[in-house]
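Hey, quick one: can you model this chain's 3D structure?
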Amino acid sequence: MTVPGRRTVHAVRVLLRRTPLLLVTLALACVLSVLVAPAQAAAPAPAKKRGCKGQVALTFDDGPVRGTTHRLVRLLRSKHVPATFFVVGQRVEALPGAVREIERSGFLVGNHTWAHQDMRTLSYDQALRTLRTTHRALLRAGAHPTRLMRPPYGATNPTIRRAIRDAGFVPVLWTTDSLDWKSGTSEQIAARILGSLRPGANIVLQHDGVNRSPISVGAVAQVVQGARRRGYCFTALDEKGRPGFPTPTATLVTRDGVEGGSAVVRVRLDRLAGRDTAVVVETHSGTATVGSDLPRLSTRVVVPAGRRSAKLRIPLTSDGVLEPAETFTVRLRSPEGLRLDDVRSAAVTITDAAAAGRVVLPGPPILLKRGGVL
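Sure thing. Here's the predicted structure for all 374 residues.
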């Protein structure tokens, strides 16, 4: 704070002797504002968050394997790191629960063929079959696989590339080979990966389904720490197999309600996003009035990574008055990490509680006696 000079102090003393109390108070306020203002102006501006030096997409091949894949999934979750798993169809069929764990933990799943054969040894039809059989196994396991695939050994030829395209898949290779399957301690594997990272897009190849996979999993924490320290950000893979995230389309599904109960709004995604996504749900009056028949909402609804939907319950007020059904509108706005369907609003009906509870009888009973009607 600036120290007041002699002239300033003298001026204050004169005011104290010559002015009424009210004017003295005003004068002191003015002096203090002059003295304090320079110190406030000198305060540093909040530091801006730095951008990412580059993106790192971790990918893991050849699983799932009992134990190793589970430990890897837990480690990635604890570090809040996205990843993509390219799985082998035979192993999916043997361990369907492991694939569900991968997906429900928020990670994406890709196709690594049925038996990990060099696809260059396959015919066009055989290539189609290995991809489609693996995809069906993933669906039977309860997974929602992406359309990404990785050819074993990264090996293709024109026939195989055509089969991959015709089957509706996008091939994904890598920019960094950890060589974890071949040699090295966890520290050496981590050093290889970190030493090969470059500004821009990086796709790292590791394995959770080979003999040396436990050693490779041991390198992951070092890779995460080292890459973040150098300014890199971790991502999954987008629909084109590039570092990033898929952008699912959100649709709105509603369920009508009864006074005194609740209506239900569900935000549903057409694919997994590999990260948390969100959208704002708003309520608007129709024949039902927001603020009296139901609350005025502008609520951010989050769809967690690994899930394809999230729901919001809207409480409905019971007024005790018998009246016709009423409606209000629900709208979506402000999508985060997703896009909105063309239909962004829906009408929801509120049924009167008294009307919902009434039972209409068919009429008075007909009494019978033996031999005929009374």
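One thing worth noting: Residues 24 and 54 are 61 Å apart (CA to CA).
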